[in-house]
Amino acid sequence: MATASVAFKSRDDHRKQIELEEARKAGLAPAEVDED
Q1: What contacts 18, CB < 8 A, 6 or more positions away?
Q2: pTM here?
Q3: Cβ contacts of 21 within 8 Å, gap of 6 or more
């Protein structure tokens, strides 16, 4: 998984990231978009 290589500030940040990924996969959260 690509996110595994990212350094997280804390375990809580990591957990939030995992939950966000799961929400995206489930279609509950919008996909990440690049901001120009």
Answers
A1: 3
A2: 0.46
A3: 3
